[in-house]
Design a protein that fits this description.
Elements (H helix, E strand, L loop, with lengths): L1 H27 L2 H11 L1 H5 L3 H15 L9 E4 L2 E4 L3 H38 L3 H32 L1 H12 L13 H5 L2 H26 L2 H10 L1
Antiparallel strand pairs: 1-2
Helix pairs in contact: 1-5, 1-6, 1-9, 6-7, 6-9, 6-10
């Protein structure tokens, strides 16, 4: 039935979008990734900060975004002088980032719940195996294709002109210019240069595409679907 396939497409769109937000969440809060990037870029030495202080500053940022602490106030030693690592402009920007993160998690949870509920209802109401598999594969292809086109667009844009992509991202999601930080005065921008975010975006894309490929293999099994149809 066309309505079943349409609803299945909506369900998989919601689930795929929720998966994308989950991958973003996991990649952004993977402390091992930060450690590898810092080692690759020799970040501690370039800022003239100890590795311990750099790790403490990073932990404060990530814990703050996840609601595990109330501020990002951290005292560190930079170039031999003790100071508060993040200035007022950086602190205000992180407040905006935290709000954006919380909204993203809320949207992710709503999409996951809606997608799962629609899909569960369809599977319960439609008991024929052949119909179920046809519905699942059609819905998966529809939902995955929509998000896939978005990911492809982002990948091409980011790889061809990351500066333009990153600027547009901030202009879309923030209504102020607090994200424009001066590398001469901002430790945060030196902790996370464009190369860091380029690697992060690329990592998110690779992980998402990999998971979608595996899930596609598990769901879209033509031989199984044909067998189910022949048994109806």
């Amino acid at each position: 039935m066309k309505i079943d396939k349409f609803l299945s497409g909506i369900a998989f769109f919601c689930l795929t979008a929720a998966l994308l937000l989950t991958v973003i969440d996991r990649c952004c809060f993977d402390k091992g990734f930060y450690t590898r990037e810092y080692t690759k870029c020799d970040t501690a030495a370039s800022i003239e900060m100890s590795q311990e202080d750099l790790t403490a500053s990073t932990d404060a940022l990530l814990d703050y975004l996840q609601g595990r602490r109330d501020d990002i106030v951290v005292d560190v030693t930079v170039s031999g002088y003790e100071q508060e690592v993040f200035n007022q402009r950086e602190t205000l920007h992180m407040k905006d980032v935290k709000v954006l993160y919380q909204k993203a998690i809320l949207v992710r949870n709503i999409l996951a719940a809606a997608g799962a509920a629609i899909l569960a209802g369809l599977l319960i109401l439609r008991r024929k195996k052949g119909h179920r598999w046809s519905m699942l594969t059609t819905g998966y292809k529809a939902g995955a294709c929509i998000i896939g086109v978005l990911i492809l667009f982002i990948a091409v844009w980011a790889l061809s002109d990351f500066d333009a992509f990153w600027t547009s991202f901030h202009e879309l999601f923030f209504d102020n210019d607090l994200w424009l930080l001066d590398p001469n005065t901002s430790i945060m921008i030196n902790m996370f240069p464009d190369t860091f975010f380029f690697d992060l975006v690329l990592r998110i894309i690779v992980w998402f595409v990999g998971i979608m490929a595996v899930s596609g293999i598990l769901i879209y099994q033509p031989w199984r679907m044909k067998k189910a149809v022949s048994n109806d």
